[in-house]
């Protein structure tokens, strides 16, 4: 098969699908590569994310070694993009801030970030007094933030300029779709629960408030899901984490709690203009699935590479898992797959 005969479908147009599709287009310049999705841009969960690079301690790949590699690759990818001349257009910035806790010393440590961030240190006594509250433990760190409302259009635009195609379609079977392609890459987020009948996939509902507060230049995290994250054109206030909730409606009680807890931590937020409220379902899986699968379907061998289940850390980890998924595509296409 010549490279120009190669046909690849990437299911999903969120941060994971967009990153994977663009990376595949760089590797297979002459192939026909399509992003197939029923929701694009602001209709994806990815648009709800604040986009900070901050994996939770529970974020998990198939082994510690692989998870650490995904983190290292991801940080490098975002940081290289930030430093490039397209960095701002792609929505990637560096920022610093604090995480405080009144009762849990382990909450202010992060085993992944301590390895990849340029600065991760204990907060000083004076810094613990920066925010009202009885803060006993704290860390200061420098990290990255990728605003998906910039990054996704930017990356999809690059993909299309290089000949990549977009297809609006809801699919009901990966296997059926794969009959028409050499390989299908499954970046369908929570959709994988149904497409793969994957009982390990669970929605974790989140709600955030976007406010205009350009004077906030530093991020803050507090106990019980409190966060204040300055992005390029707004500050994201959060949040909540509701396990197994499928509710995509705005909840005014969640909004009141978020506003109260953020204003208590950073009083200068009082009176900031509210730009909007957003709700999303984090596509959680205890182990993020980046795997190849070769199956028999309708008398043919179909090839699928999965890349889903990033939970609350999909922006953080999209590059690392996508690079791995692209390597698996290369393996299944070259016939090296032992499956
Ligand atoms: C409130 C909140 C705050 C967050 N903050 C952060 C943060 O600061 N940092 C961070 O790293 N992460 C954050 N996240 C997590 C992040 O948003 C997700 O991990 C990420 O968006 C997952 O991306 P995805 O591409 O896998 O899924 P999605 O963005 O949901 O995209 C899935 C795609 O698959 C398509 N699809 C699904 N099923 C089908 C089907 N049957 N047919 C066709 N297409 C289909 C959809 O149409 C869509 O295009 C946050 C999430 C929430 C809710």
From TrEMBL:
Binding residues annotated for D-dopa, in chain numbering: 227, 282, 312
Ranges that cross the membrane: none
The protein's name in its UniProt record: FAD dependent oxidoreductase domain-containing protein
Cofactor dependence: FAD
Family classification: Belongs to the DAMOX/DASOX family.
Keyword Flavoprotein: yes
Domain FAD dependent oxidoreductase: 7-322
Claim: Repeat is one of the keywords in the record: no
One MF term in the entry's GO annotations: D-amino-acid oxidase activity
InterPro entries reported for this sequence: DAO, FAD-dep_OxRdtase
GO biological process: D-amino acid catabolic process
Highest classification ranks of the organism: Eukaryota, Metazoa, Ecdysozoa, Arthropoda, Hexapoda
UniProtKB keywords: FAD, Flavoprotein, Oxidoreductase
GO CC aspect terms: cytoplasm
Residues bound to FAD: 38-39, 45-46, 311-316
């Amino acid at each position: 098969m010549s490279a120009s005969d190669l046909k690849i479908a990437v299911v999903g147009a969120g941060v994971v699908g967009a990153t994977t599709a663009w990376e595949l287009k760089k590797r297979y310049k002459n192939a026909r590569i399509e992003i197939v999705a029923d929701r694009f841009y602001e209709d994806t969960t990815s648009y709800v994310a604040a986009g900070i690079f901050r994996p939770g301690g529970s974020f998990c790949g198939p082994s510690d070694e692989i998870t650490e590699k995904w983190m290292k690759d991801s940080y490098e990818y975002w940081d290289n993009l930030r430093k490039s001349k397209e960095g701002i257009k792609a929505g990637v910035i560096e920022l610093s801030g604090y995480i405080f806790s009144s009762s849990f010393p382990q909450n202010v440590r992060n085993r992944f970030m301590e390895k990849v961030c340029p600065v991760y240190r204990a907060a000083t006594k004076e810094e613990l007094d920066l925010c009202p509250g009885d803060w006993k433990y704290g860390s200061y760190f420098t990290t990255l933030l990728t605003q998906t409302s910039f990054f996704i259009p930017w990356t999809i635009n690059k993909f299309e300029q290089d000949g990549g195609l977009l297809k609006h379609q809801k699919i009901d079977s990966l296997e059926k779709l794969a009959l028409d392609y050499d390989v299908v890459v499954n970046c369908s987020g929570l959709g994988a629960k149904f497409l793969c009948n994957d009982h390990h996939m669970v929605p974790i509902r989140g709600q955030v408030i976007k406010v205009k507060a350009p004077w906030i230049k530093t991020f803050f995290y507090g106990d019980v899901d409190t966060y204040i994250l300055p992005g390029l054109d707004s500050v994201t206030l959060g949040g909540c984490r509701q396990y197994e909730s499928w509710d995509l409606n705005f909840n005014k009680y969640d909004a009141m709690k978020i506003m109260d807890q953020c204003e208590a931590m950073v009083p200068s937020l009082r009176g900031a203009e509210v730009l909007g409220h957003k709700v999303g379902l984090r596509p959680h899986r205890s182990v993020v699935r980046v795997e190849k699968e070769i199956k028999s379907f309708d008398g043919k061998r179909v090839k699928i590479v999965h890349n889903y289940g990033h939970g609350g850390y999909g922006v953080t980890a999209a590059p690392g898992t996508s690079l791995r998924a692209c390597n698996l595509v290369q393996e299944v296409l070259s016939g090296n797959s032992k499956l």
